[in-house]
Every structure is written in structure tokens, then in C-alpha cells.
Amino acid sequence: MSQSLKAKMIIDKSFRIAEVDKRIYGSFIEHLGRAVYGGIYEPSHPLANESGFRSDVKELVKELDVPIIRYPGGNFVSGYNWEDGVGPVADRPKRLELAWRTVEPNEIGTNEFFQWTREVGSEVMMAVNLGTRGIDAARNLVEYCNHPGGSYWSDLRRSHGVEQPHKIKTWCLGNEMDGPWQIGHKTMHEYGRIALEAAKVMRWVDPDIELVACGSSNTGMTTFPEWEAVTLDHTYDAVDYISLHQYYGNRDNDTENFLALTMDLDHFIHTIKSTCDYIKAKKRSKKTMMLSFDEWNVWFHSNEADSKMEPWQIAPPQLEDIYTFEDALLVGSMLITFLRHADRVRMACLAQLVNVIAPIMTENNGRAWKQTIFYPYMHASRFGRGVSLMPVVDSPKYDSKDFTDVPYLDSAVVYNEENEELTIFAVNRNLNDALELNCDVRSFEGFEIVEHLVMESDDLKATNSAAQEKVAPRSGGSAKLDGGVVSASLNKASWNVIRLAKK
Ligand code: AHR
């Protein structure tokens, strides 16, 4: 029988975690599957512009308001010669791409991608190849992209028709170098050494850049978290961020356990913070290492189809997960977790952006459409800018297969001081019952409810498609404000965005 569950929350202006770095709403485009070819770029599409970029895809990216996009990989970067992707397109080689066993035509490279990010209003987070290449290729790429002119690589860029330097600020020192699947996989000491030397000379070329060292590929790696400790022991003074990657899946179809996975995410972030702080103490350093969660998402639906993919195709449909409603709930919870760690998680990239484990899908020569996960990502990106406040939560809890004391209510709060807006993000993890929320917001005098957006579905496995959008948010949730208290019924298994603003 259904029962009434109650949760209480206190939000106060003074419970500040940190200013949210908008780059936690970043994403990722890899030369993989149909992310680039058939995704952002399809010159034969009726909606393509003169550069071959699809305007329908651009509009959806703009709707998400993505501040930074990681590029060009991922596993791809560890075998990539960036020089293949610049200069006249007709002269660019087609290469066997060993990470994903495809053929890379190199029609899109650094300059084209940079242009596309300008068109969608994003910054680039550029990764360098520390797999098959190393220090030399990395420093040359920084010179090609960021040096104004008067040197070999910067003049080469100018000869390619790009007069002004790109001034790319954020650079990743390789990708998942701890993973045996990585081209040029390294031990932690090998990686620590090459990352330090690459960082050193990249910064000598451009002192304004910031650098991300590779952390573990996921918490299941046998070298986790020693990898982070050793890598940072080598690189602490030379880098600004350590990366975190994590993908989740509901392989056993145990949704209660699936929705509790952000307990694991939270623990992961705590572990990395502690590891960074241990090295900080060891080095008697004043610097605090920040975290770049530069790959995260749900990823498992497409695993079987991918294992059967014919090799050496150009842009085959790889990693095309079709996301369910429950996946959107977990994505919402993951964003909530990043907000609650806004003091240390300064960048995060939803992996990825188009077609490949992505919120945006396209049909070749057809429509672009929104997956279920598009919406929590869009809500957080649009309404989650300001100061992250720590809500004091008192929620009923449950135990799942792998977790104990999982609160049904998962919540984060962002206060935008400039616009005088307050946004409460909340997931009700209970699959059967509504949660009656009572939330004290007395420190926000003169505020009123703007809207209560809700995403819910009777079918946890509901998906969207090019033909039909079954899962989408609606406004008109039940939130009311009375005497400084917001009361709302959070429907079973729902994503909620309660927006308040000063009258
Ligand atoms: O995002 C897909 C892949 O996941 C990336 O190429 C790799 O870095 C990770 O293992």
C-alpha cells in the first residue's frame, strides 16, 4: 500500500559551498562513431551551412548552453597525429583508427572544430596524444594553436587561413593512460614523468594555459587510487587539475540500486580529494588541486551492438545508447553530486554530446532529436549557475544491493545572486511513492516561486526517438511557497527543478 513519505530541507544563503564553475556543464566530442561525421558535420545534409555543419545540431547544442567541449578524444587521441587534420582537406590522409577500429578521413581537424565551437558559443578543452606521440607533438600543437605568429608552427596555422591564434586555455595531458586498452598505455611512473615533461614545455610555449593530468579511468582499476597519488607526486606543481572518469549502467535491471550509484560517485570524489590533499601535504604545497570530471554518463545499452560492429568503416553507429527515463534520473543525480562538490569539481564533461552516448541524436540526412538525458543536463546548465548552497536534508532512506542508507531525496541548490534567483534540483529516488517535501527558505525574503519543472514517467524504460518524444519535462509541479517554506509533492521516480526569484 502506498504511504506518505516526508522529507525536510533547510536552505540558507550562508550555507555556501562555492561559486559554481560553469564548466561543470561541459561536454565532449570525440572522433568516434557518428559524433563528428554525421553528427556535428554532414555537408550533404539540407540544413548544413557552408562549412558542412548541421544547423539543427548547433541549435540543440546552444539550447544546452555548453561552456566547454573536450576534443578530439578519448581513446582516439592516443593514436592521433594532429598534423593529419590541418591544411588543405584534399591533402589529408585517411588513417586506420586503432582505438575504435574505424577509418578516420580527417575532413574535420583542429581548425574546423575550433570554428564549430565558436558557432555554438563554447570553449575547447584540447587533449594531446601522450600514447603514440609525446612532448614534441604536444608543444608543437600548443604553438600551432596559441602562438600569434613568427614561428614555424604558428605561421603554418596562418598559412592555413587562420590568422588569429585560437588561445585554447585548457589542455588534457593524454587520456586514460592507466588503461591497458589505451594506445601507448603507461605505468603510473611512466605517465607521471611524461605528463610532467609535456606540461613543462607546453607551458613554456604558452604560460597562460591550464593543464589536466590523467587520473584513473574508473574506480574499478586495480591501480586506483595509487595512480592518482603517484601521478600527482610527479606533476603536482605543473598541473591544475586531475581528471576523473566514470560511466554507470543498469546491467542487472535493479533500478533502486542503479539510482543509488551516485553514492559511489560521491565516494569517488571524496577519495580523489583526499588523495590530492595527501600529496599537497606531502609536498608542503599551498596549492589545492582541482578536479576535472571530464568523462561521465550512463553507458551500457550499446555494448553488445558495438561488440558486433564491422571494423574499418567510416563513422559507423558506435556507442549509440538510447537512453531511458531512469537514465535521465541518474544523470540528474550525477549533476546534483557535482554541484555539491562545486568547491573542488571545477570542470565536468558529459560524455559525449552528439550520437555517441549523447543527449543529442541525429539521423543521417534526417532529423536531430533529444534523448531523455538532454533535459536534466539542460536544466542544470541553464539554471545551475551561481553559488552552490549545501542543503541540510532530512530524508527517509532505503537499502539497495550495494548501498545502505540511500536518501530518497537527492538534492542540490544554486543561488544566483546577480539575478536574485534560487533553484532547487531534486530527484525522488522512490519508485512507488511521492515524497512530500518541506523546505525552509526563510533567508530568501521576498522570493516567490517561478516554476516547478517535473520529469516523470510511468515507464522507467521509456525512451525518445526521432519520431516521438515520450519523455520531456512539464511545468506545473505542485511547489508552493508559504511563510518562507516551500512545500511540494515530488512524484515517485521524478526529476524536479523548483525555481524561485525575488519579486
Ligand atoms: O567516451 C567513450 C570512451 O570512454 C572514451 O574514448 C574513453 O576515454 C573512455 O573509456
User: Which outline best applies?
Assistant: globular
- Which strand order spans the largest sheet, edge to edge or round the barrel? 3-4-7-8-9-10-11-12
Distance between the termini: 41 Å
What small molecules are bound in this structure?
alpha-L-arabinofuranose
**Total strand segments:** 25
- Average pLDDT, rounded to a whole number, is 97
Can you give me a brief rundown of this structure?
By secondary structure, this protein is α/β, with parallel strands linked by helices. The chain has helices at residues 55-64, 110-120, 135-146, 152-159, 188-205, 226-235, 255-259, 261-282, 303-307, 325-340, 374-383; strands spanning 5-10, 16-19, 26-28, 68-71, 95-97, 102-104, 123-128, 170-173, 210-213, 241-248, 290-298, 345-350, 360-362, 368-370, 387-389, 392-394, 397-398, 406-407, 409-416, 421-428, 435-440, 447-455, 480-482, 485-490, 494-502.
Overview features:
503 residues, 6-stranded antiparallel beta sheet, binds alpha-L-arabinofuranose, 8-stranded parallel β-barrel
Question: Any overview of this molecule?
Answer:
The protein is an alpha/beta fold and 503 residues long. The protein is built from eleven helices and 25 strands. The strands form six sheets. The protein has an eight-stranded parallel barrel, surrounded by six helices. A six-stranded antiparallel β-sheet has the order 2-15-19-20-25-22, covered by helices on one side. The chain has a five-stranded mixed β-sheet with strand order 16-1-21-24-23, with no helix packed on it. A hairpin with a 7-residue loop joins strand 17 (397-398) and strand 18 (406-407). Helix 6 packs parallel to helix 8 (261-282).
